[in-house]
Amino acid sequence: MPNVGETAPDADLLDTAGAPYRLSAAWAAGPALLVFYPGDDTAVCTRQLCEYRDHWGEFTRRGVAVVGINPAGVDRHRGFRERHAFPFPILADPTGACCQAYGAAAWYGTRRLAVVVGVDGRIRAAVATLPFLKPSLTGLLDILDRAAG
């Protein structure tokens, strides 16, 4: 996993329409929160991403782009995003290379990891939690506020 202060790995992923999405586009205009999560429609992942949706104003007020990432296919991500009306992209990493580059690849699949990337393309913070726990929204917002300052 890259360390805080290092350049964030870039990657070519796919959005829910199957269109290419260059990861650096997420932090091109402001900070980004990259959310690596184990699986679509699983209890903890759904709660985590729905919490971000429900507090979307907290992210937009800070100018933060949020993207969800895991290796599941575009069709699965599309259904997940539509069912829960996420206002942020859910990206497919079909080769798993992006998850690997960020240290989110694990023996059981994708580890739960939130990475803050600054507009300069450098990693400002990374928070890993166990698969059955979601990171605290308040804690992430505090990290975003500190990373912006």
How would you characterize the overall build of this protein?
With 149 residues, this protein is α/β, with parallel strands linked by helices. The chain has a single domain (12-148), classed as Glutaredoxin, CATH 3.40.30. It is 31% helix and 25% strand. It contains 5 helices and 9 strands. A 5-stranded mixed β-sheet has the order 5-4-3-8-9. A two-stranded antiparallel ribbon has the order 1-2. It has a two-stranded antiparallel sheet with strand order 6-7. The longest helix is centred in the first third of the chain and has 12 residues, at 43-54.
CATH superfamily: Glutaredoxin
Number of helices: 5
**Distance separating the two termini:** 24 Å
Overall mean pLDDT score? 93
Write a compact overview of the structure shown.
The protein is of the alpha/beta class and 149 residues long.
Q: Any chance you could write out the topology, listing elements then pairs?
A:
Layout: E1 12-14, E2 20-22, E3 32-36, H1 43-54, H2 56-61, E4 65-70, H3 74-84, E5 90-92, H4 97-101, E6 105-106, E7 109-110, E8 112-117, E9 123-129, H5 137-148
Parallel strand pairs: 3-4, 4-5
Antiparallel strand pairs: 1-2, 3-8, 6-7, 8-9
Question: What brief labels describe this structure?
Answer:
5-stranded mixed β-sheet, alpha/beta, Glutaredoxin
